[in-house]
Amino acid sequence: MITLGEGNTPLLPAPRLSERLGVEVWLKWEGANPTGSFKDRGMAVAVSRALERGAAGVVCASTGNTAASCAAYAARAGLSAVVITPRGAVARGKVAQARATGADVREIDGTFEEAHREARRLAEDEGFVNVNSINPDRIEGQSSAAREIVQQLGRVPDVLALPYGGGGNTVAYASGFGEQLPRFVLGESERRSETFASAIRIADPVHRIEVGRVLERSGGVCIPLSEEQIESAWRLVAHEEGVFCEPASAAGIAAVAAAEVHGSVVCVLTGHGLKDPDATERIAA
Asked: Looking at the domain assignment, is residue 1 inside a domain?
């Protein structure tokens, strides 16, 4: 098993947010993972299985966090990593992480969806393993977070709040909870293709159909959010609870603030604030 010590991240009570929102709020702090995001859970499994199967290397398309995680775990495994990103659309902190750990970072003049197609082509033509969330090993690894929440909280929460970019994490949490799902509340940007919250800057979610099924099963809801709502939620979690997450991570909290929710609410903060220094510097001023 290739590992950097991922998982077992804190579940933090959020008393001030609870008072403001009128529900019992907990923060699942995934920024505490080795490369600073939830992607490490799935990448540990995906890269381990790729190594086991004798892969020539691993490849991914990324808006940033997958790139950083893929590069780190590939380096740990002694595998080559190719990362395909849309030019100018990825936070510089994440690109720096990927390059620092030896990935071949290839920028394309196109969208994330076009980067995704190129990653699939490399996987098919050159024997690389695609470690995007279309890889079931990624989903399996990320599903561990749901089981951790149940262990830490002592029960399944009434509500799980998540940012919604590509949708892989929603699918993973649903898998991890199994038959007893909390109500899923997802926050997505109204400006998917150009939002300042770069981690969810995905115009066409790969897992849109599966996410729809999860929402139907759980009685959940997806809330379109303005840039101002995401920014306000980011500032709120930082000022009220002292947790410095990247802007996209606050989309779940913004969705909870905009939706009608009851009971215990776990908001997943998917990545550390240092992942996106340009955005956080601007909105922290």
From this structure: no
- The per-residue pLDDT for 272 is 96
Kindly list the distances between the CA atom of residue 95 and the CA atoms of 41, 69, 203, 206, in Å, as whole numbers in the listed order: 19, 11, 20, 22
Q: How far apart are CA 64 and CA 70, in angstroms?
A: 10
Of 122, 137, 152, the position where a domain reaches its end is: 137
Residue 264: pLDDT band (50, 70, 90) is: very high
CATH code of 70's domain: 3.40.50.1100
- Answer yes or no: is pLDDT of 111 > 90: no
Per the prediction, the chain carries an average pLDDT of 94
Residue 112 and residue 17 share a domain: no
What is the signed CA dihedral for 101, 107, 111, 117, rounded to 10 degrees? Answer: -80
- Average pLDDT on 214-221 reads 98
Tokens for 65, please give them.
């966090």
Q: Based on the structure, what is the number of domains in the chain?
A: 2
